Target: Citrate transporter
Amino acid sequence: MGGSLALAQQPVTQPALTTEMLVVFGVVAFALVMFVTERLPIDVTAILLIVILVVLEPWTGIDPSTGISGFANDATITVLAMLILSGGIARTGLVQELGRRMASYAGDSIHKQLFATVVATSPVSGFLNNTPVVALLVPVVTDVANRGNTSPSKLLIPLSYASQVGGMLTLIGTSTNILASDISARLGADYPELHRFSMFEFTQLGVIVVIVGALYLIFVSHYLLPERVPARADYVEEYDVGDYIVEVAVVPGSPHVDSRVGAVTERLGPEIDVVQVVHDRDQSVAPRQETRLREGDVLVIRTNRDAITMLEGTTGVELVGNPQSDAELSTDDEAGIITELVVSLDSRLVGERLDPEAFREEFNAAVLGLRHHGSLVSDRIIDRRLDVGDTLLVQAPPDTLDRLSRRDDVIVAREPSLPEYRADKAPIAVAIMIGVVAVAALDIYPILLSALAGVVAMVVSGVLEPNELYDAVEWDIIFLLAGVIPLGIALEQSGAAAYLAFLVVSTAGFLPTLVVLWVFYIITGLITEMISNNASVVLLIPVAAAAAVGIGANPLAFVFAVMFAASTSFLGPIGYQTNLFVYGPGGYRFSDYFRVGAPLQLLLSVVTVLGIAFFWGV
Model:
């Protein structure tokens, strides 16, 4: 294991703190603030970093060609290709079918349900990007919970965490692994122990991490997770929207007779949103603005308390009801199903203000309620700015929900009744994926080339349509990689990474090497909670490698510690996109992630560090 104490094998002299270092530290600090506060979308921040680094070229050393080199970097292109391949697998319905088969085994046993969730998620996440895997399995796991009379809150965080540990099984399990491999290859010029990773270079440790994580999630997590959402929850009651929904009838002689819904809405006020029109027991969910009203029609309206009071004295309409449950609001599932929509990572809704009328026109769904960052928005939902992970309670016809489940803007938190998957293409998609992995694993061609060849094969074979290539890519991840890669280069070339490494060595040099390795794991895990996992590895791998050399340790061990830690974001919903996807459907609070994630993070930190020491030495 390389010596028990982290005693320097060679004299370590303090690097001089230069103007170049100070400038790069300033850019890094700016990047951290922007990532944490999210004042700009993450992809826009990444582009801004490129601009700043190039403008400050005399100090950062980043010229225009180096500044945009992240777009042509092997890691960026490989991640792009792997996202497309994952999209191809998703189009076949293979992941959902695996989830459904595991669900049929689960029954009403919480341990079986958690076992099914973990087994359906972790192995698949070793070969597919875990973001679409979790997006596809959220409705499957929610249905497992409902059928087994279990709170979805008990299963959805384990779903997200299982996907994260599963990503550590192979090189292509997560974009973080691919980026870490690229940085390791670049640093290989200075550190002979570092190199580009092979497909299964760290699989033996990944298997141990998955097994330990799975045992924790199956046997411990459900004791720590509260039932935030009741089993088979009544959504109207759960979202507390009963007090904001009323039924009004168009009375005889009303000036609204023969008026369009849009015109009536304008007359009643901007806070009024017509969710349904009921005519002779015929329900029109999310009615169009051109829909004409007739005498006796009942309008189901979503508004606020003040507007409800105002409606009581409005000419032409009469309050006739106040639905307090799903059953009262939706008497016919064929007419309108009440369910949740989660705003996805690359949704066009991110950053937009909620306009129920426009939402109804575009999505053919009526908005009833909203969870923003996990918290219920009780009263006014109009004009609320939407973010990734926000959950909308909607009512929509089944065919609308089936259509929405195939779009990238939202995740429908229920399984579509009429799924349209290319199931006949599943064997071809699996064969292509196996070919990509095999070619890279056998070192016939690099993973970059085999992945791009796989993309072409997906299109030629009809697994993916050409226009679907772009929809499968999470472009904010691509831009993030392109922006942080030159930042990492500036950190190395300016000497800033070496300076930070000296500070680590001078303050922790008296500790055993194994403890210093563990400290890097913990620091990386904490930083990943505030910024993206890809930004974490870019900033910390150069520092970790330099620190390892400074204490006479194995740089590869420190690189692996940073890489594994960056892919385990368990302490909050912000650090990893899959945590955001389950935030709303699970009804979670921020503290729930910490409650179940902190023990898991601590457990895996010990297991991972000991595993690294055993397999590669420190």
Q: What stands out?
A: Residues 1-11 have pLDDT under 50 and may be disordered. The longest strand covers residues 273-279.
